[in-house]
Amino acid sequence: FAFDQLFEGILPEEETKTVFHEYFHAVQHAHIFSLDYEERDLLLGPTWFVEGGAEYMAQYTTSKMWASGELPTTPGEFYPTFQERMEWKLIGGQENLEQNCPGMSLADITYADPCSYAAYELGAWAHAYLQHLAGEEAHLNVFWPRVEELGWEGAFKEAFGMTSADFYTAFDTFLALPLAEQRLILADI
Q1: Region of residue 130 (phi > 0: left; psi between -120 and 50: alpha; otherwise: beta)
Q2: What is the pLDDT of residues 33-50, one digit of tens each?
């Protein structure tokens, strides 16, 4: 499916990506069987993990499908590449965090914070980084199938080979690298 320029100024590709983002939330929730809201919230993890995961998977999957021809693109329109969109997310996320929540860690951002969108943008990069470290299958085939059994931290460690605390330290180091080095972890789609 695809949108047919229903919204002025927004390319159908962006709306299609948004549908994939929301669908990934369904994937996340499908692995949690508890009906207790607080338990579900804990198992889903921090805001960056939930929203950054949905955003990264949507960007990554739609980009792969457009490149293969599985999803249509708008004839005559330019849509930025996966690498360009991710670069904008990195820059925008860092600016948002610095301007709206100076000194706040990605780990601590919630939906209520004025920099909450940084959790989507930098969270997408966090997931790109995790995929770079642990491989493409770690999220869907290791983390989510084990999250209810092991808890968020236990599933994180099993899927990505490190604790979340170690991840935050490594990711902060990664965020301090020059953009040219950061881009090297992105898939060439």
Answers
A1: alpha
A2: 999 999 999 999 999 999
Q: 189: how many CB neighbours lie within 10 A of its CB?
A: 16
Q: How confident is residue 3, by pLDDT bands cut at 50, 70 and 90? A: low
Q: What is the CA 129 to chain-centroid distance, rounded? A: 10
Torsion sign (Cα): 56, 142, 116, 95: negative
Mention every residue, 6+ apart, whose C-beta is less than 8 A from residue 90: 121, 122, 125, 179, 182
- pTM score of the predicted model: 0.93
Of 32, 173, 47, nearest to 121 by C-alpha is 47
Who's near 104: CB < 8 A, 6+ residues apart? 97, 113, 115
Q: How far apart are CA 73 and CA 76, in angstroms?
A: 9
